[in-house]
Design goal:
The protein has about 150 residues and is an alpha+beta fold. About 45% of the residues lie in helices and about 25% in strands. It starts with 8 loop residues before the first helix and ends in a 13-residue tail after the last helix. One of its GO terms (molecular function) is lyase activity.
Length: about 150
């Protein structure tokens, strides 16, 4: 049995942030290269709704903006670690993959492997995509200026 170790909440949140922005096929392809331990579904992937809240101007009174579809799943490894996965939309496979990754990063013997083979490459791809979009946006930037017409 593997030795469980403390994974910080920040580590798990950072991993979740990378995984929810990745495509399910990318996560699955990266996990396919790793010999995974046995796991069971604690909660089969299921779809539901969450209320999205907003604030006028970002700091005004909160209001209900609308509902969003989410999918959640929970997985337990044979060694006892439980992982949870949530994603926007109805992709049940992606929610299960995220839950599996969450469980794996809680194991000392898999945490570095998941970071190196799954999370780091996905993080790099996402950063490159953000840079590409920023460059495209910067290329369309227009600088406006005003001419002063005399003393007021």
């Amino acid at each position: 049995m593997a030795t469980p170790f403390e994974t910080s909440t920040q580590t798990r949140q950072a991993a979740m942030a990378v995984l929810v922005h990745a495509h399910a096929d990318d996560i699955a392809a990266r996990l396919a290269a790793i010999e995974l331990p046995a796991s069971e579904a604690l909660r089969a992937p299921e779809n539901g709704l969450v209320m999205v809240r907003g604030r006028v101007g970002g700091d005004g009174a909160p209001f209900n903006l609308g509902e969003a579809t989410v999918t959640r799943a929970a997985v337990r490894l044979a060694s006892g670690e439980c992982g949870f996965g949530y994603t926007l939309g109805r992709d049940k496979g992606k929610a299960r993959l995220i839950a599996l990754c969450d469980a794996l990063i809680q194991r000392r013997d898999y945490a570095t492997t998941i970071e190196a083979n799954v999370l780091a490459p996905l993080r790099a791809e996402q950063a490159a995509e953000r840079r590409r979009k920023a460059e495209q946006t910067a290329a369309t930037k227009v600088d406006f200026y005003t001419l002063v017409r005399g003393e007021g």
